[in-house]
């Protein structure tokens, strides 16, 4: 399963380069070799900048100013955290669009240590306006989101992961479903499952009287769907299950339900650093993001047995 989303990204981007004259792919060594064929056909639109991620983003901004549609790619900590100043100034401040495609997610590359972990990327990017943030839970969703981003002009962050759901919950009738999608209905609470954690959430909430909403896009946040889901609850209870920093979207829930008395629990990657390397599966368990840990948290929050 490892790398399936990234492989799909390479395949689809290579196809798009042949049909979209404005498109350019920028890498920082990561995955660069997989674009060798595309680079031979489009040497002026497939560019590798080495391990110089600040330059990667600045070059993306320059290409966008020149009318190109840049797709920049690296591991999440090197694509979002390291060059954040360039994202803020060379993309947002210049009012240009770009597509940033990361790999590694929060701890997919846990064996490489803290330098390759980025649970705070979505929270950090959420401090800037105008970003669409896609967190696909399946390669089919990632492909649909990438194709849509390539055709657009805005700012898009596509967060790829080695983790995957068994099915593409965000694809309905062969088309990408942009808003929250209802996977299960109940009355006691609403659980929002983001991206690759949907299957774990479904397993964790089996037999519980809860609605499960699925989100493959977290910015913009689908406040309309959330309000509709809690409409019959006297005091809405919302559980957010996100594959990055716990509580990242709690302010979005607060804004959506600001006129209602409500409770919210934000589950995700904890703030405390896990200093043992471990496997991604061990990290998920340690953060309570496996099905057993999620069930304990949800049941405790709802006060159910």
Automatic annotation (TrEMBL):
Report domain Transketolase-like pyrimidine-binding positions.
3-167
Q: Quote the InterPro entries the UniProt record gives.
A: PDH/Transketolase, THDP-binding, Transketo_C/PFOR_II, Transketolase-like_Pyr-bd
A Pfam family reported for this protein in Swiss-Prot or TrEMBL: Transket_pyr
The domain of life for this entry's organism is: Bacteria
- Protein name, as recorded: Transketolase family protein
Q: Which species is this UniProt entry from?
A: Kitasatospora paranensis
């Amino acid at each position: 399963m490892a790398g399936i989303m990234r492989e799909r990204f390479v395949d689809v981007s290579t196809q798009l380069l042949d049909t979209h004259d404005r498109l350019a792919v920028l890498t920082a060594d990561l995955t660069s070799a997989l674009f060798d064929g595309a680079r031979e056909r489009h040497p002026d639109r497939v560019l590798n900048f080495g391990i110089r991620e600040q330059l990667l983003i600045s070059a993306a901004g320059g290409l966008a100013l020149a009318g190109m549609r840049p797709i920049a790619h690296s591991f999440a900590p090197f694509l979002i955290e390291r060059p954040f100043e360039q994202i803020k100034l060379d993309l947002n401040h210049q009012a240009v669009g770009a597509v940033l495609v990361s790999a590694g997610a929060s701890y997919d590359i846990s064996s490489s240590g803290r330098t390759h972990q980025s649970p705070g990327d979505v929270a950090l990017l959420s401090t800037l306006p105008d970003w669409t943030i896609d967190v696909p839970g399946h390669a089919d969703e990632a492909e649909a989101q990438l194709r849509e981003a390539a055709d657009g002009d805005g700012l898009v962050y596509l967060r790829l992961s080695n983790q995957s759901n068994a099915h593409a919950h965000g694809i309905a009738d062969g088309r990408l479903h942009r808003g929250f999608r209802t996977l299960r209905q109940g009355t006691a609470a609403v659980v929002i499952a983001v991206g690759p954690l949907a299957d774990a959430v479904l397993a964790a909430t089996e037999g519980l009287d809860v609605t499960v909403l699925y989100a493959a896009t977290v910015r913009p946040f689908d406040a309309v769907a959330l309000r509709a889901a809690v409409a019959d609850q006297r005091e809405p209870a919302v559980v957010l299950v996100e594959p990055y920093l716990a509580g990242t979207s709690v302010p979005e829930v607060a804004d959506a339900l600001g006129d209602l008395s409500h409770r919210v629990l934000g589950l995700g990657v904890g703030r405390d650093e896990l200093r043992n390397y471990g496997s991604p599966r061990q990290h998920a368990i340690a953060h309570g993001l496996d099905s057993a840990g999620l069930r304990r948290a949800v049941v405790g929050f709802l006060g159910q047995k």
